Amino acid sequence: MTAGALAADSEPAGVSKPVKVYIIMGQSNTLEMGQVKGGEGSLENAVKSKNLYPYLVDDSGKWTVRNDVRNVSVMEKRSKMNVYRNDWLTVNDKKIGIEIGVGHLLGAAIEEPVMILKSSIGNRSLAWDLLPPGSERYTIDGVTYCGYKDHPTAELLPRPGWKYPGKPVKWYAGKQYDDDVANAKNILENLPEYYPGATSYEVAGFFWWQGDKDRYNEVHASRYETNLVQLIKALRKDFNAPDAKFVCATLGQTKKGTSGNDGLILNAQLAVDGESGNYPEFKGNVATVYTHPLSMGGASNAHYNGNAEAYMNVAQAMAEAMVKLATKK
After folding, report:
1. What is the pLDDT of residues 41-69, one digit of tens each?
2. How many Å separate Cα 36 from the centre of its chain?
């Protein structure tokens, strides 16, 4: 189902079938950064003045509630899991993230109950904080960099230019990956607390929007494709979901043909798309959304200026890609 054909639905989904779980991971642009109230760039303006995303409001002009889509958001802070959302999908009064567009489209396209489960935090790199299991040490220009679970030492560095302080470092390569995955699993292990009445689930897909942190580091940018391929495999293994679909969104400011670190990350993200032919095992189950035409002129390091349209546009495109993968024969 496309966004243009979407109609709001407030009917609860029966919980006799397993909940279809879609996990959102990445860094700060997966969080709630789109402004709801205000003028140009706000969700209110987009819906009420431009008549965009009509499924977000009911006949009385109130934000619709999808009683068939659960919106759950968690984040690791101060060494504990914090729950930020645990409710039926609707727009709140302050800000939105991609879960709003993603949840509405998936809820309309899928008969089973749906959970959008976000487990992420800002300012994290794929080459260090989110480094997935199975990632090995590598050496570039005589410098060896940490593999998964490695702590930095004088001989083993996390990133170029970093100086070992001569004392143990608590953080390790992949710690944010471990935290985000553990928190998502915690939610699923306590499913009835987060989807009332549900007794079973299936991890059906992953949404990934990340790359801003890695683009400031040439080595990290050069490793992005390797790490992204490993991430897809690791997530499917960790959640026992070998058939789960994976949708990646590019950074909105980066045009095709861009060089430098930004170009390396964009090309890496485009390379894993199953239609690219680079990874035959990803054909029909991995898709990349090119977001430059959707980002309203904003950039990832400025959170797309808080423009709600950018977040909704990207969300709709990601959801449509996920639905296409799910229905692909």
Report:
1. 999 999 999 999 999 999 999 999 999 99
2. 20
Tell me the β-bridge partners of 71: 87, 116
Token pair in block for residue 146 = 């940490």
Cβ atoms of 133 and 174 within 8 Å: the answer is yes
Written as six digits, the tokens of 199 are: 């007794």
Beta-carbon count within 10 A of 271 CB: 17
Cβ-contact 154, 164 below 8 angstroms: yes
Query: Distance between CA atoms of 305 and 55, rounded to whole angstroms?
Result: 24
Which tokens belong to 287? 């898709």
Question: Cα(288)–Cα(267) distance, rounded to whole angstroms?
Answer: 11
The model's pLDDT over 239-279, given as tens digits with 9 standing for 90+, comes to 999 999 999 999 999 999 999 999 999 999 999 999 999 99
Cα angle, residue 312 at apex, residues 86 and 288 outer, rounded to 5°: 100
